[in-house]
Amino acid sequence: MQTHFSEEQLKDKDNKSSEKIFRKCVHCGFCNATCPTYQLLGDELDGPRGRIYLIKDMLENNKPANEKVVKHIDRCLSCYSCMTTCPSGVNYMHLIDHGRNHIEKTYKRPFSDRFIRNFLSVTLSKSTNFKIVLILSLFIKPFRFFFPKKIREMLDLMPGKLPNKTLPKMKVYRTEKKKKPVARVALLTGCVQKVISPQINEATIRLLNRHGIEVIVPKDIDCCGSLNHHLGKSNLANQTFKKNISIWHNEYIKNGLDAIISNTSGCGTTLKDYGFMFRSDKDLKKKAKKISELTKDISEYLEENVKLNFIKNKKNDKEYKIAYHSACSMQHGQKIHKEPINLIKKTGNQVIDIPDGHICCGSAGTYNLLQNDIAKKLLKNKISNIEKIKPQFIATGNIGCITQIANGTKIPILHTVEIIDWYTGGPKPGVLRKL
Ligand code: SF4
Ligand code: SF4
Fold it and tell me: Could you give the angle at the alpha carbon of 48 between the alpha carbons of 105 and 111, nearest 5°?
């Protein structure tokens, strides 16, 4: 694709990177074939190629965003299916991030949009705030019919009760006494995940500790920053990124870290991009790169580094048919697909592919809250594809997908790490008690 940025414009680091990406695009449109919004809406501007043109036009011509551009960019799920399909290696993720930041700087959204986006930014990225909202939602839920559609849709996605915690809140989770740890890792517990599904972090910690790995959870790290990043709120996101980089890097230098573990693939994708985001920051460049290099999804870390001790007993000797849902941030964002499937297969269960498994379930961070109509259609298609293969339960590696899919089916869904924990000596996951 030809570009027409001036030399002055190319002094800006983001323009410079985006220009290189635009040049790689050969307009072939292969990406449209696997884009969920293009498939549903059939409009060129709701596909990756059309969005690339919209972003290019704004940046090259220094144009402020307008209502039309915002509509089509907002409809993008950031699922990155287009990146897996693109034969030219176009990094659409960096383009859409740049486009969203430009929109946030140059476009004034209607009041209701601004209110909802600010509300999500304040509540979801801080676990304490989110917990307060969750408790309030429990009281409001019975009266949901009195609220506007948008609020009703948000309430529907909130869990019906506060989950129980079984592990104490600590900074360091040590391995069995007297044994020297074989490795030391930091765990990102996630701002939303630790409130609504603490059992995922608990299973991760138990499993790692049982295999001789010490786990640290720095108390000042809450969110990875991706919620604000995807809302285009770059200042807020940058504050979080910088704080996280500094805390983890200090820990790495002072006490040593073999990895930073993410058990939410949406967050892991962002951590792995810290290096790119701070590529021109002379103070943080090297540190951010190190954090990205250290980041591993839990399935990637277990498959590559841990000799798992599977235990067969009466409680887990039944063979289950499990549908593996590959979260977009996992398969397209991090290119991790085989690892979780291999891990689940090692438990002796049958893992089956979901038809059209490359297409998003509609969760996509805050997408199911902001673009509920499209998200519902994607969920309906996903559930229909899952139910066709009749699994006993579903496994995945991302809390957003777990919440979204659980909203559309009675088939139990759980995190991959909960299965591995169970088959290596941990408790049977609560959602499977009736199976
Ligand atoms: S990220 Fe997903 S929704 Fe957005 S353009 Fe690419 S394939 Fe389409
Ligand atoms: S597949 Fe890649 S090269 Fe082809 S139009 Fe899409 S982004 Fe451009």
Answer: 35
Pull the structure tokens for residue 361.
């379930």
88 CA: nearest ligand 2 atom = 3
Q: Are 371 and 154 in contact (CB under 8 A)?
A: no
**What's the first-to-final CA gap in the chain, in angstroms?**
54
Spatial separation of the C-alpha atoms in residues 25 and 178, rounded to whole Å: 57
Distance 72 CA to ligand 2 centre (A): 17
pTM, two decimal places = 0.93
Beta strands 413-415 and 393-396 are parallel
Is residue 343 within 8 Å of 64, Cβ to Cβ? Answer: no
Sign of the dihedral defined by the CA atoms of residues 208, 331, 322, 363, in that order: positive
Measured at the CA of 49, the angle between CA 45 and CA 55, to 5 degrees, comes to 75
- In sequence order, the β-bridge partners of residue 186 are 216, 260
- Nearest-angstrom CA–CA distance, 316 and 344: 13
Q: Whose CA is nearest to atom 2 of ligand 2?
A: 86
Probe target for ligand 1 pocket from 77, 358, 368, with the most ligand atoms within 8 Å of CB = 77
Name the nearest CA neighbour of 36 among 51, 18, 56. 51
pLDDT (tens, 9 = 90+) of the chain, 435 residues, equals: 999 999 999 999 999 999 999 999 999 999 999 999 999 999 999 999 999 999 999 999 999 999 999 999 999 999 999 999 999 999 999 999 999 999 999 999 999 999 999 999 999 988 889 889 888 988 888 888 888 888 888 888 888 877 877 677 778 999 977 778 999 999 999 888 888 899 999 999 999 999 999 999 998 898 999 999 999 899 999 999 999 999 999 999 999 999 999 999 999 999 999 999 999 999 999 999 999 999 999 999 999 999 999 987 767 778 899 999 999 999 999 999 999 999 999 999 999 999 999 999 999 989 998 999 999 999 999 999 999 999 999 999 999 999 999 999 999 999 999 999 999 999 999 888 777
Report the DSSP pairing between strands 213-216 and 172-173: antiparallel
**200 closest CA partner among 190, 209, 210:** 190
Q: Indicate which residue's Cα is closest to atom 4 of ligand 2.
A: 28
